[in-house]
Design brief:
Length: 180
Amino acid sequence: MSLNQLIEKCKANDTKAQGELYTLFSSKLFSTCLKYSRNYAEAQDNLQDAFLTIFNKIEQYKYKGSFEGWLKRITVNTVLQRYRNEKVFDIINENITEDVEIEVDEEQISINFLLQIIQELPDRYRLVFNLYALDGYSHKDIADMLKITVGTSKSNLARARQILKQTIEQHNEKQNLQSL
């Protein structure tokens, strides 16, 4: 069955087709959820919520652009909506303007460690960091998505980078001490 046929069956509320769609895309969308969530369990909850939204809105998909891109956009928006509802973006006045560069030694730091420290960032920093650094959104797009100002987006990104840099430096120091 083609993807378009599968989509049409999902639009007709065919539960078998919905299961196939879930099987086909759940791992990719789970990695998106994991990126934006605080932990694995929350990512699982976010994935389920995203698929509920996908199945409720699949009628709106008009075969323009990538279906996978459409799924990802709904998934990201579903996760962001959860955080907007939790008021994680209440205004905190932080005037951080310096751009922090993060140097990562791939031999010392694993992808799992990076994912873990990104997940441990406070919500407002993690979401802005992921949207900007990992998914390539502009600060204006992020501000619109999260209902914050462009300045807040920039400030949150700078703070996220500072925290990540400090955490990586501490990790490297610890590794260096252990190797002595």
